[in-house]
Specification:
The complex is a heterodimer of chains A (about 110) and B (about 120). With about 110 residues, chain A is an all-beta fold. Chain A is about 0% helix and about 50% strand. In chain A, a hairpin with a 6-residue loop joins β4 and β5. Chain B is mostly beta strands. Helix content of chain B is about 0%, strand content about 50%. Chain B is built from no helices and eleven strands. Classes of the chains: A mainly beta (about 110), B mainly beta (about 120). Chains A and B meet through β4, β5, β9 and β10 of A and β5, β9 and β10 of B.
Chain lengths: ~110, ~120
């Protein structure tokens, strides 16, 4: 079973600053990785699919890169609505299993 | 608009059975797998498994295998998650989501809070 690790656990930043979030897999997942944003009381929201493709309606300040076992989500300039928890998720072809990372909380400094 | 709408909150006792639902609209229901995830309030997301609505083939995460059952009714475009005997540790929010062809899930249902308490 593939295990995802996210770092840091918490990121304290100010609006306008750059956020860099990391997701590392215990083995290669190719490009089968997605990123989500979750705010209190809401369902997760897809930000990035296929490791680097922004989902429809996601602002350009969100970008992602990586392949294999190391992935990065970058928020170029934090806005107030970006303070939330961010999860990465991998999907394997066989067995058709998926798993989430433990999450990174981005909070206001 | 592609949408998944889940059934409302439930309060149950240990040992009781339960089925929650997730109704799809705005896209071809049998074209995409539906996955389920669990979130204990204040904790992270756990992927439970997925079902292919076109043939009802399922895959369960080992952590949930044998404790829940996923099913679909294509006539009403609805996926279900069922328990035969609930435990207090099943208290959580349960989400359904549509799995995209490429890694990613969208949209998500609004979540169903299941509370199991004696």
């Amino acid at each position: 079973e593939i295990v995802l690790t996210q770092s840091p656990v918490t990121l304290s930043l100010s609006p306008g600053e750059r956020a860099t979030l990391s997701c590392r897999a215990s083995q290669s997942v190719g490009s089968s990785l997605a990123w989500y944003q979750q705010k209190p009381g809401q369902a997760p929201k897809l930000l990035i699919y296929g490791a680097s493709y922004r989902a429809a309606g996601i602002p350009a300040r969100f970008s992602a890169s990586g392949s294999g076992a190391d992935f990065t989500l970058t928020i170029s300039s934090l806005e107030s609505e970006d303070f939330a928890v961010y999860y990465c998720q991998q999907r394997s072809d066989w067995p058709p299993h998926s798993s989430f990372g433990p999450g990174t909380t981005v909070n206001i400094k | 608009e592609e949408q998944l709408v889940q059934s409302g909150a439930e309060v149950k006792k240990p040992g009781e059975s339960l089925r929650i639902s997730c109704q799809a609209s705005g896209y071809g229901f049998t074209d995409y797998w539906i996955s389920w995830a669990r979130q204990v309030p204040g904790k992270g997301l756990e992927w439970m498994g997925r079902i292919d609505p076109s043939d009802s083939h399922t895959y369960y995460s080992p952590s949930f295998q044998g404790h829940v059952t996923m099913s679909v009714d294509t006539s009403v475009r609805t996926a279900y998650l069922q328990w035969n005997s609930l435990k207090s540790s099943d208290t959580a929010i349960y989400y359904c989501a549509r799995q995209l062809i490429v890694a990613g899930e969208k949209p998500w249902g609004q979540g169903t809070l299941v509370t199991v308490s004696s």
